[in-house]
Amino acid sequence: MASDIRPVTQAEAKEYLRVLPYVNGFPQEEPEPSAWYAGSAAWPPQVPKSADELERDAQELLTDWFRPQAAFVDGKIAGASAIVSVQVTVPGGQQVALGGVTSTAVVPTYRRRGLLRKIMSAMLDDCRERGEFLAGLSASEATIYGRYGFSPATFQHRWEVRRTDVAFRSEFADPGSLDLVDGAEAAKAWPVLHEQMRAERVGEISPLPGKWDGLAGGGLPADGSGPAHHLLHHDATGAVDGAAIFRLPWSPDPEQAGVLQVEAIEALTSDAYRALWGLLLDFDLTKRVVAARRPVDEPLRWMLTNPRALKLTRTRDNLWLRVLDVRRALEARTYAATDSLVLDVSDDLYGAGRWRLDAAPDGAVCTAVNAEPDLSLSVNELGSLYLGGVRASELSYAGRIVERTPGAVSRLDALLRPDRAPHNAVGF
């Protein structure tokens, strides 16, 4: 079996696409309700692409932001993946380049032959050559990507609340206004709002081209959850400072009827946040609200007289990170304290190294050293720690960080402590 890993050409685009689950109709998500999906059923499989759809997608495949790689076995494509060029906001507010791994699959008859490892190595090498010192992905199956240095860095909640259980702790006079709008108006507002949000939210991803184009066209989703409704909040000056997308699916089952599904909600101010939730949690002729893609430090719970009214139904890892250049990654972010630690970081793909991190609230210097380490960890743990969403003490207790100098784990926690939990509302 002769195998080769390389980028695909335009002539090979259709063959490349046929390998991918969202094209061929094979499962692409675990068969249970997800934290990023507000429906009651498992995420439905995609219908296989028609010949016309395949032709159209093939013509649009090769762009400057989508970099597909394929595994060729005896001249035939047996596996595929791609890197998308995006940005992620890191502590301190800098938006850095991220190689986003997506559209990954191996043809079932070619599994267990090491093809995925070869594809992943080729793509990570490509990221390093382009100067991307971080790679990221959203894992459809949690047991696969740790082998290549990835580890969960952000998490999402899915929660629900009975409308009759909701009462806010205090009265609220909204200085702005709420408006139900059509998809075309929402499609204009969301890109501007998201750019403002990601400038200040650690972990947020820049949207792929055309992210909100579908809002203007309307249409029904594949899972039958009904059309999207769009809500905008304007501040006292008339500027949009919040938005929500929700659905009201019909169901013949009384247990599933009257459910309002919140697909997305963003707010720049606490006034906009309170106003949006105030309406969504008290929408006429509904009995239950289910919200997906929610941050793990959702402040709504603390606005309610009964915090138990908000019940978590799913927590799931979202963005997995892979550090490709330790020095550049650690120097790109800021820190919550001033300290110096020596980290021994192992990496199965790119080799181990010891790094002295001289960190401060205004930045850091990271230097390769030959000194006794304060902490030993792998590049996987570094990926989870990087945005501040996972504590070093948690990983140490789990046996994944070795403390060489007493107190070093607590010192690292103090350095990496975020103001808010990292969160990314959009993916790739």
Describe the structure.
This is Acetyltransferase. Residues 3-175 form the N-acetyltransferase domain. Keywords: Acyltransferase, Transferase. Belongs to the acetyltransferase Eis family. InterPro entries: Acetyltransf_17, Acetyltransferase_Eis, Acyl_CoA_acyltransferase, Eis_dom, GNAT_dom, NAcTrfase_Eis, SCP2_sterol-bd_dom_sf. With 428 residues, this protein is of the alpha+beta class. The chain folds into three domains: 3-148, Aminopeptidase; 157-313, Gcn5-related N-acetyltransferase (GNAT) (Aminopeptidase); 333-416, SCP2 sterol-binding domain (Nonspecific Lipid-transfer Protein, Chain A). 22% of the residues lie in helices and 30% in strands. The chain has helices spanning 13-17, 21-24, 51-59, 115-129, 183-198, 213-217, 270-280, 326-332, 379-385, 392-397, 408-416, and strands spanning 3-7, 66-73, 76-89, 95-106, 134-137, 151-152, 155-162, 177-181, 228-234, 240-247, 259-267, 288-294, 311-317, 320-323, 339-346, 353-360, 363-368, 375-378, 402-403. The strands form three sheets. The chain has a seven-stranded mixed β-sheet with strand order 1-2-3-4-5-14-6, with helices on both faces. It has a seven-stranded mixed β-sheet with strand order 8-9-10-11-12-7-13, sandwiched between helices. Strands 17-16-15-18-19 form a five-stranded mixed β-sheet. Helix 7 links the parallel strand 11 and strand 12. The radius of gyration is 23 Å and the shape is globular. The two termini are 33 Å apart.
